[in-house]
Amino acid sequence: MAVDEHPHRSPGFHPPVFRRNRTASAASAGIDTHTAPQAYALASLRVLTGFVFLWAFLDKVFGFGYATASGKGWIDGGSPTKGFLGSVAAGPMQSTFHSWAGQAWVDWLFMLGMLAIGVAVMTGVALRPAAVAGTAMMALMWIAEWPPAKHLSNGSPSMSTNPFADYHVIYAVALVAVAAAGAGATWGLGRLWARLPVVRDHTWLR
């Protein structure tokens, strides 16, 4: 029997060859790989959510006359937490929040948290820590408002519009969504942040 010894491809099955393309490399590095419409939608959600936190910080510091009256800002000697926590009128932590209202450590912790979350989310860096911190903050504020209550402690109607899904829940979910999706690369500094040695070694900082 004659045997052709020239190398050629057999018509049989060949196992696939896996190559690390740019998309795979980007995904393994935790860099955004969404299509353009998805990336822009997530970036818009990220920037707007971050601005909610940053604006709340600025308004409470300077008293722009929106949620914080002019002349009542933190810079003027006002307390960012006294009014809100002091007016809690329902929920299992009512007395605890009253005792915290206006305390210096609470004011500083709250304000630094608002600033850090706002800056991180708007710039697209440290989205995972920001999501954890923001979710914890939103959970405490949700408990303070206690949407499940139909009546306040004085018996008046709470006027709660939904017993669970209020805006605090929506903000928390938005933070988790942009962090899980790695939405810091579009309109943000997420790619540069992901290349830092400390971030590469500690992926929870992304």
Summarize the helices and strands and which ones pair or pack.
Layout: H1 22-28, H2 36-62, H3 82-86, H4 94-100, H5 104-123, H6 127-145, H7 167-180, H8 190-195, H9 197-201
Structure summary:
With 206 residues, the chain is mainly alpha-helical. It is built from nine helices and no strands. The protein has helices at residues 22-28, 36-62, 82-86, 94-100, 104-123, 127-145, 167-180, 190-195, 197-201.
Comma- or semicolon-separated keywords:
about 210 residues; about 0% strand; mainly alpha; globular; disordered N terminus; 9 helices
Notes on the structure:
By secondary structure, this protein is mainly α. Helices cover 53% and strands 0% of the residues. It has nine helices and no strands. The chain has helices at 22-28, 36-62, 82-86, 94-100, 104-123, 127-145, 167-180, 190-195, 197-201. The longest helix has 27 residues, at 36-62. The N and C termini lie far apart (64 Å).
How big is the Rg? 25 Å
The shape, in one word, is: globular
Query: Number of helical runs?
Result: 9
Q: How would a textbook summarize the main sheet?
A: none
Order of helical and strand elements: HHHHHHHHH
- Average pLDDT works out at 88
Structural class: mainly alpha
Helix proportion: 40-55%
Low-confidence stretches: 1-31
Percent in strands: under 5%
DSSP strand count: 0
**N-end to C-end Cα span:** 64 Å
